[in-house]
């Protein structure tokens, strides 16, 4: 048969509820076979277009029939489940009857609709069930007595490069082995259960059995459904009896594959993690992509000699026949229609476009039965001789060591033995009649409890129903609550609980549920240390349960209580259907994270989605840490835009920043912390799951090398906090000296940083006094240099005394430069006196804009060391350490609050004596809600601007009250300019107005101006401390003019006068 290309179809789903809530924009268009995608970030850009065999529009234009089936509305181009089957599934079925191998696999990111197309939901059955149903309908229509049919069904899951048989209760540790047939070269799963089926109802029941098995595994954290591939294999044999009495077997293998979510590895941002290469998160999909690319190159003839890397993963081994082999293959790519998923959807389209170039060579699998049996017997004899002869003799001198040769020989012997056993099993199958095998399988199938008989009980008895992140796995497990007590715990408890759970944080005796005539209550088992949450809140004592209450046992087992006897007890605000997402939002709200989407920008919505995604992962990892006693704790940290590290940024750039989701890991023994980006944490969490699985399999994981331990991380500098240095004074060639607050990611004050900013020459020497300019545009097209000096710091927390340094990034001579101060050790009040001269060869308007609205972010770091912990702490386990740490933090919080109250009282006294005291350090964001940080920081900015405005009004009022003879406009102008330009741009209009006034007044003769100005110059000459301090409190300038002799050349420090004005500098 000539080569046949892989058929590729794409299908776009409707908006889901989350996307509707966020007013998502549609980015997909379809016309005929053409699919185009628009970039939401570049609306004027030409949409990217792709052509496929089928483009299915299932986004809108449908109506629901009375039986729940969705069909096209009048004049709509909506593609229903039936139409997709007729185009794709019917072709699979027709090819199977002709004797061809067939493969159908669905590809796309998590939540894009793969499972809906493959399996369906409710009455809207997908391709797999419709194909199976139609196959048995065709079999039932057969009237030829010389033709009989044999159908077998198998279902497996590939997760973390391990194969699990979903139809078997007993899976070996490490999963089933994948072997290669030495004769055909194809791979197969050893000891995979293949069940004879005689009707669609039996297939449906077996599918439900496999789905329940997936649900249990996912809940126990042995697998995560979105990261697992599900493969359903149906072997369809037609045995045709000829007139001579000989039989011919026409065989077809149908592989129906639901691939894991195709999230790109780089989209999680896990770059730089030392253990990234060891993670298998996307290994199988990456390998599949490499196979598709290699086959596409071969089919197009671009490369003649290329080895297709089938062996790189379990998935590609099993799909070898489907891709580039003896199979008619169809790929359906599921697309998300929302703008928020643009990158992933574009990646899916490109993947599908590559796959359509692959060509397969399908042949009819038809052979006489006696010939097949004879070939099996001959192959068995050959394999036995090979075994008796010591296996395949390896040639020496092939570049292999004796140890490698021996290892290869043993492997080949093992493969031969496995193939021999498989052949013998096939011979035994042929000897046993099909009817006997089918009857035996049906007896087993009838015993499977799929819950069909429980529907009547659900209308009159309370029960728990499971929730899962995969909607296809929700509602699969049901536990009825009989009158009296229902115990919950592990199956190794004595007595065995009524509801047996396993997995993280599940205790032997976990909880007891009481049912007294429909009144349901729950209580944790005393002394068990069990963790249970009701509607997101920890269970303490005995609690009454209402209809639709959400219950989380341990870390993973989420259930909803359904009480048909007391339906009125349900909260009226609850949605009609409780989903996994709703339950997770509830937990996030209890932890202080906002979950409402009203008024949020696209970036904020993404952050919210990431928080909801990562919270259950953090709970899971904390549970593993406790169970393996790793002495680490994890928490979600939301770093606000204002608190992020950065270089020199403008306000317009800062406005585009968004909060960043990170995870903080803390060593509970010595207090060291690490801040992991979301992608790095997701990778580590996956490796932690692998480690925990080894622990469950009985391996000793307590002594693994620390370099291989996902919980271990070498010490690194920890970010204490950041300070933002604003640059408006440089626009007027003014100095700026101030003490800035150091704020951590929560907005809490961690200390102060004293800095100085001064214009200078290219060697760092301060420029002349007369360099001050009225109009910043006078500086354009001239070289400009300024010096940034980090003088001292004052850090509050003693654990940072091991060493402190400051880092910042700045553009110097047109190139970004990383600047780092020396590390000062063994003190909390380091003196750096570190200066850096920054040069601009030719000042442009963009530089002035940066001075006007930009800032340099100074990041203060503390040195961490692997210190020996307190010996008393070594006696505590991880749970006890976490509890002790929480108690200590609560105690410190109480002490800090008391200290702040005392500081407030001192500041009040200071204000009464005429001194201005900082008030921004008292405004501390709540520890319970990181999302309030943005509001707190913006409030600080607002109050600071208010304070500056009041000061300007005061200066103007003082000036207006002076007699005309004493009104000196130059000092007055400079005073107002200093106040206005030392903060944001809000008061710029006042400066411009005063500039105009100054120009008018310069034309008026002022007899006293010369005398007073010379007095001012003498004062500056006599007092070095006063030179170039034009950004101090302007009231001091006017006082100096009046009482120059009284000062004796001494002035209050600029830090004291300006401490309040810029201590709360934040990016708007």
TrEMBL record:
Binding positions for ATP per the UniProt entry: 108-115
Which SUPFAM superfamilies does the record match to this protein? C2 domain (Calcium/lipid-binding domain, CaLB), P-loop containing nucleoside triphosphate hydrolases, SMAD/FHA domain
List the GO molecular function terms: ATP binding; microtubule binding; microtubule motor activity
Q: Name one Pfam family in it.
A: Kinesin
Question: What are the FHA domain coordinates in residue numbering?
Answer: 486-539
* Kinesin motor domain segment(s): 5-358
Q: Where is the composition biased (Polar residues)?
A: 1038-1068
Q: Name one GO biological process term.
A: microtubule-based movement
- List GO terms (cellular component aspect): mitochondrial membrane
Q: Which PROSITE patterns match?
A: FHA_DOMAIN, KINESIN_MOTOR_1, KINESIN_MOTOR_2
Location in the cell reads: Mitochondrion membrane
**Gene3D superfamilies in alphabetical order:** 2.60.200.20, Kinesin motor domain
Return the annotated region ranges for Disordered: 1009-1068
Asked whether the keyword Nucleotide-binding is assigned, the reply is yes
Residue ranges annotated as coiled coil are 928-962
The record describes its membrane topology as: Peripheral membrane protein
Report the sequence similarity comment from the record: Belongs to the TRAFAC class myosin-kinesin ATPase superfamily. Kinesin family.
Q: What does this protein do?
A: Microtubule-dependent motor protein required for mitochondrion morphology and transport of mitochondria in neuronal cells.
Q: Which PANTHER family match?
A: STAR-RELATED LIPID TRANSFER PROTEIN 9
Entry protein name: Kinesin-like protein 6
| Species this chain originates from | Crassostrea virginica (Eastern oyster)
């Amino acid at each position: 048969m000539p080569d046949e290309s892989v058929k590729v179809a794409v299908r776009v789903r409707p908006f889901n509820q989350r996307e509707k809530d966020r007013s998502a924009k549609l980015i997909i268009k379809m016309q005929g076979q053409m699919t185009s995608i628009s970039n939401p970030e570049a609306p004027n850009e030409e949409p990217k277009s792709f052509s496929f065999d089928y483009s299915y529009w299932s986004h809108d234009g449908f109506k629901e029939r009375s039986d729940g089936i969705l069909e096209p509305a009048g004049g709509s181009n909506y593609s229903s489940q039936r139409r997709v089957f007729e185009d794709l599934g019917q072709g699979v079925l027709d090819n199977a009857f002709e004797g061809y191998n067939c493969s159908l696999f669905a590809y796309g990111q998590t939540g894009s609709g793969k499972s809906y197309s493959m399996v369906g939901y409710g009455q809207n059955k997908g391709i797999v069930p419709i194909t199976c149903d139609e196959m048995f309908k065709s079999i039932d229509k057969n009237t030829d007595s010389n033709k009989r049919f044999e159908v077998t069904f198998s279902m497996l899951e590939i997760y973390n490069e391990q194969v699990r048989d979903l139809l078997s209760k007993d899976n070996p540790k490490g999963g089933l082995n994948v072997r290669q047939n030495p004769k055909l070269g194809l791979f197969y799963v050893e000891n995979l259960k293949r069940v004879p089926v005689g009707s669609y109802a039996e297939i449906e029941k077996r599918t439900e059995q496999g789905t329940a098995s997936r649900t249990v595994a996912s809940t126990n954290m042995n697998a995560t459904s979105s990261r697992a591939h599900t493969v359903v294999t149906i072997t369809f044999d037609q045995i045709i009896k000829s007139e001579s009495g000989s039989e011919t077997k026409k065989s077809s293998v149908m592989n129906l594959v639901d691939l894991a979510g195709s999230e790109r590895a780089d989209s999680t941002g896990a770059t730089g993690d030392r253990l990234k290469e060891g993670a298998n998160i996307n290994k199988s999909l990456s390998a599949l992509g490499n196979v598709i690319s290699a086959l596409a190159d071969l089919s197009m003839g671009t490369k003649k000699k290329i080895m297709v890397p089938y062996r790189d993963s379990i998935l590609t081994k099993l799909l070898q026949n489907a891709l580039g082999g003896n199979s008619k293959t169809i790929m359906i790519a599921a697309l998300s229609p929302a703008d928020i998923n643009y990158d992933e959807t574009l990646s899916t389209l490109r993947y599908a476009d590559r796959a359509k170039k692959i060509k397969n060579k399908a042949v009819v699998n038809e052979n006489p039965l006696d010939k097949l049996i004879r070939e099996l017997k001959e192959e068995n004899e050959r394999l036995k001789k090979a075994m008796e002869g010591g296996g395949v003799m390896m040639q020496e001198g092939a570049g292999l060591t004796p140890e490698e040769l021996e290892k290869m020989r043993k492997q080949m012997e093992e493969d031969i033995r496995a193939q021999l056993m498989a052949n013998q099993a096939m011979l035994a199958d042929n000897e046993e009649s099909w009817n006997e095998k089918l009857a035996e399988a049906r007896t087993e199938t009838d015993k499977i409890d799929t819950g069909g008989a429980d529907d009547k009980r659900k209308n009159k008895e309370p029960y728990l129903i499971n929730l899962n992140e995969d909607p296809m796995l929700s509602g699969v497990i049901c536990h009825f609550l009989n009158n009296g007590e229902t115990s919950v715990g592990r199956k190794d408890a004595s007595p065995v609980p009524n509801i047996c759970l396993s997995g993280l944080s599940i205790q032997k005796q976990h909880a007891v549920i009481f049912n007294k005539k429909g009144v349901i209550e729950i209580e944790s088992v005393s002394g068990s240390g069990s963790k249970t949450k009701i509607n997101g809140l920890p269970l303490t004592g005995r609690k009454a349960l209402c209809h639709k209450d959400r219950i989380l046992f341990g870390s993973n087992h989420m259930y909803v209580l359904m009480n048909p006897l007391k339906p009125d007890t349900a909260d009226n605000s609850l949605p009609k259907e409780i989903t996994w997402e709703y339950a997770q939002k509830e937990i996030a709200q209890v932890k202080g994270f906002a979950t409402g989407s009203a008024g949020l920008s696209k970036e904020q919505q993404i952050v919210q989605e990431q928080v909801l995604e990562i919270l259950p992962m953090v709970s899971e990892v904390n549970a593993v840490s406790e169970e393996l006693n790793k002495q680490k704790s994890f928490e979600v940290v939301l770093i606000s835009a204002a608190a992020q590290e950065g270089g020199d940024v403008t306000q317009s750039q800062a406005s585009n920043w968004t909060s960043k989701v990170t995870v903080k890991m803390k060593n509970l023994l010595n207090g060291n912390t690490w801040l992991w980006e979301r992608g790095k944490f997701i990778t580590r969490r996956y490796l932690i799951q692998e480690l925990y699985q080894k622990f469950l399999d009985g391996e000793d994981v307590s002594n693994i090398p620390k370099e291989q331990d996902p919980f271990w991380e070498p010490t690194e500098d920890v970010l204490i906090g950041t300070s933002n240095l604003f640059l408006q004074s440089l626009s007027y060639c003014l100095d700026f000296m101030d003490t800035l607050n150091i704020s951590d990611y929560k907005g809490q004050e961690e200390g102060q940083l004293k800095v100085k900013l001064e214009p200078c020459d290219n060697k760092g020497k301060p420029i002349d006094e007369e360099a001050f300019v009225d109009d910043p545009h006078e500086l354009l097209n001239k070289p400009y240099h300024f010096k940034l000096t980090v003088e001292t710091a004052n850090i509050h927390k003693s654990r940072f005394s091991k060493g402190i340094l400051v880092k910042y990034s700045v553009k110097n001579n047109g190139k970004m430069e990383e600047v780092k101060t020396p590390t000062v050790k063994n003190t909390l009040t380091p003196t750096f006196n570190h200066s850096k001269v920054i040069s601009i060869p030719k000042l442009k308007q963009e530089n002035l804009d940066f001075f006007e609205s930009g800032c340099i972010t100074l990041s203060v770091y503390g040195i961490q060391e692997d210190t020996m912990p307190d010996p008393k702490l070594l006696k505590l386990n991880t749970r006890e350490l976490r509890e002790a740490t929480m108690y200590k933090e609560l105690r410190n919080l109480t002490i800090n609050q008391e200290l702040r109250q005392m500081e407030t009282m001192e500041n009040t006294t200071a204000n009464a004596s005429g001194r201005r005291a900082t008030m921004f350090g008292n405004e501390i964001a709540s520890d319970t809600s990181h999302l309030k940080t943005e509001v707190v920081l913006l409030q600080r900015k607002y109050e600071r601007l208010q304070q500056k405005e009041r000061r300007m009004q005061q200066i103007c009022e003082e000036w207006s009250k002076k007699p005309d003879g004493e009104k000196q406009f130059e000092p007055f102008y400079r005073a107002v300019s200093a106040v206005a330009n030392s903060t944001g741009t809000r008061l710029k209009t006042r400066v411009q107005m005063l500039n105009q006034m100054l120009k008018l007044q310069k034309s008026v003769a002022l007899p006293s101006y010369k005398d007073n100005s010379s007095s001012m110059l003498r004062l500056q000459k006599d007092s070095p401390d006063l030179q170039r301090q034009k950004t101090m409190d302007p009231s001091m300038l006017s006082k100096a003019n009046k009482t120059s002799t009284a000062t004796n050349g001494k002035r209050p420090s600029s830090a004291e006068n300006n401490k309040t004005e810029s201590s709360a500098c934040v990016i708007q």
